[in-house]
What does this fold into?
Amino acid sequence: MIVDRADFPLLAANPELHYLDSAATSQKPGVVLDAMMHYYTHDNANPHRGAYALSARATERYHQARERVAAFVGVRDASRLIFTRGTTESLNLVATAWGRTNVGAGDEIVITGLEHHANFVPWQQLATEVGAALRICRVTPDGRIDLDQMASLVGSRTKVVAFSHVSNALGTINPVAELCAMARRVGAVTVCDGAQAAPHLPLDVDGLDVDFYAFSGHKMLGPMGCGVLVGRRALLEAMPPYPRRGRRTWATRSVSRRRANTSVESGWRRCASTNRRSPRSPPAGCAPFPTFVCTGRRRRNAAGW
It folds into this structure.
């Protein structure tokens, strides 16, 4: 689909500018900028932190954004979708909260030579910290994952197979389903960096059957400071808190009786003594909620909803 430069205030104000760096971050359309201003001028409050009407409205907007983003990327159960500050934080979340609990000395982590540092360094550091082995699958001369070598690397000691959906450097589209099948045969968890796929490919994350899938909003016309991690529910529920939080530990009642009856978030939130957190609860501290809300707005318009 061809979009009009007039939709982007920065491009409209600079007709001589030809912006070619959307792989790093996209320009922001006016509808997103307007949505951020609307949030601050009409709905600004901390979601999940107040029982008054304004906070309830902000909470409702927050949940609506989650549901829109989930629908846009093909996730039927929106409670599996966590808002983060970006792909890098999403991948670090998995490597830290899941990895430190489930990967130990003698285990193996398999990644590929195509990875962005965001999907390389967290696994490298985890391997160093716990005494695991980091295995790197080579790239073929035509810029693809060597699937024969990958099959030989993934074995009984493999705990994690991490790979990108689309390479940020070469644009290679990797066979996600095939890689997941290799990992599943040995019981390994799959982690997919979707930062370059989500802006350009129609996504059916459920259909990919990957355990964790991460991407960023700011590469998809959304604001900076927003990202997504989609995780398998059983894995999310078993993960310890990340990062440690300063919030109250009681469950927050949802903004309507319907949400109070059906919200997984309220059901998953636990007291601190149980050492559990809700995968859907907001990030620690005061999170950039307007960016999440506006990312949902951008997805709705892109999908023609």
The longest strand covers residues 158-164. Residues 30-76+244-302 form one domain. The chain has two domains: 30-76+244-302, 87-216. The CA atoms of residues 265 and 280 lie 6 Å apart.
